[in-house]
Every structure is written in C-alpha cells, then in structure tokens.
Known about the structure:
The protein is α/β, with parallel strands linked by helices. The chain has 12 helices and 12 strands. The strands form 2 sheets. Strands 2-1-3-4-5-11 form a 6-stranded parallel beta sheet, with helices on both faces. The chain has a 6-stranded mixed beta sheet with strand order 7-6-8-9-10-12, sandwiched between helices.
Amino acid sequence: MNDVARLAGVSQKTVSRVINNAPNVSADVRARVNAAVEAVGYRPNSAARALVTRRTRVIGIVTSGTALYGPSAQLFGVERAAWQAGYSVVIVSTADSSGEEFRAAINRLIDHDVDGVVLAGPIPVALDSDVFRGVPAISVGDPVTGNFEFSAVIIDQHSGALQATEHLLSLGHRTVWHVAGPVSWYSASVRVAGWREALHRAGAPVHEPLAGDWTSRAGYQAGLELAGRPDVTAVFAANDQMATGLMRAFNEKGRNIPGDVSIVGFDDAPDSEFLMVPLTTVRQDFTAITDRAVTELVRAMSGEEFDQGVTQVRVDLVIRASSGPAPTRTAESLGPGA
C-alpha cells in the first residue's frame, strides 16, 4: 500500500479510501490510485482487512439447490448483485426442505463469519432472531415467519396469478383450471389464492387445482388428465415448465392451442418465447428483487437505515400466442361441470 501511495503521489489513507470504495475521493485521484494498484500488482489481504475492520466482506446465501428456473435466477441475481457491491459470496445448498437442515445451513454460514445472510428460495420453517446471532439477514422470494420482524423482497405473486386468470376470463372462457406447485411452497400457495380470487370475482366455477411439482412432467400428467374433458378450455399453470408439459399433452391428444385450449404460465423463463406456440406468461423481474435485497442488506451491514418488513416488486403479464378467445361451442357440447 505504501508503494501504491508513493507511485500515485497520495497518502496511504487515500489509497485505503479508494480500495474500500469510500466516498469523497475525486475521480482524478481515484484513477491515479487504481493505475498505481495495477502497476505494482497490489492485492488487498482480505484476512488482514477483516482483522482491522471486523468485516469479511462476504455474504452468505442459503438456497434450496434446485435447478428450477425461478430459484436459480434468484441465486444468480443475488451473486451478481453482491459482486457488484464489492462482496464475495459463500453458498450453502439444502438438500431437502427440513427445518433442521435449513437452520444448520444458516449456522454454518454464520460460523464462517459472513457479514450478512440472504435466504434465496423457499423457507420451510419459522425462524427466530437468535438463529442469526446478530448478523443482518434478508429473504429473497419468500417472506419469513417467526416472532420477529424480518426483511424480505418478494415478487407480487398474488397479483400475477390474478392477472393471468383475469386475462383468460376476459377472452370468454367460462372458467380457468389450475395446475399448482407444491403446497409447501409460499409462491405456489399465493398463486392458488390469486387464481381463486379472480374466479370468485367473476362468479366463475372453481374446480380443485391439480397438484404439480414445478416440473414439465407434472404438467404433462395434468394435461393428459384434462385433455379428455371438452369443458376444459383454459388452464393457468403455476410455472412455465408445467405449462410446457401441459402444451405437449394437449397437442398429443389433438387439442389445438389456442384454438381449443388456452394456456398461461408463470415466470417468463428464457425458452417460453420460443416454444412452437409462444407461451403467454407472467414475467418476474428477478434482477429487481435481488438488486433491492442486496442493497438493503448492505445498508443493514453498514449500520445504515434500511427497509424492514416485506417489499413487493410488481409483475407483468406477457401475452403471446398460447392464449386466445374461447372456442365457440354450445352449452350442451361442453358437458357437465362447465
């Protein structure tokens, strides 16, 4: 650091301020210091810095370890936002949804002296403040239940399901069937609630949702079950993967999309726009929620004022070719249950 200061013509304190991204350093001085850092090959010693500052500049992430698009996008977004904020990350994946393993994952991160914790993905258990031992934490995607106020940044799942269902009803469909995600997932339960509310508002029949597990295979199996019913003309799937499986099943059974059946998904996964029939879906802005979560966590770790409670980020309905007007049929042709 002395070599850098000498080469840049500044004090060692100024070098420290530049390296730590402190404010009140002119652009010219910052550029000279950075050039000197590169010239001498200086790299800060993170262990030494941690001893002085009592901060490791590491954020711990607890994730479910799934390859599903939503949780994976959240994990990538948190990692990218942390890196841009000047933090490294340590990731602990949980192999199942047990509360014990989830708490153990949090303990492992705190034992590694992380400055903060992000819970990215489904949270299977209520948590108490003593679990975090004074380390700031925030949730991305799911609110946290427990006997203390916990910060969370989440997608407005309810509004998304409401919009998807209302869109199908506005096309003249008498009702909308639903293929739901696992009941243990917060996002799945809230999407079911939004779907039900839209149907109740419209006075439309409400059929029991079909159980799914987020996979294309689950959507395919649900589609085989629904394809034999002529009264099924609209289906809202709780994610795009299940919607993809639905579309294949209906196609195999000779049901045209959207001529006979309209389908809407949730997520706007990268491939959804490029299916043989582009999928109408609800777009989640994962960048927005992860950037906001990391920003609030950094404020908390720095002792600054930060948003507490639950912050919701809006969603957008993306209308594509998989949803269209209800087919013209007589009431008799629809059969019972329509």
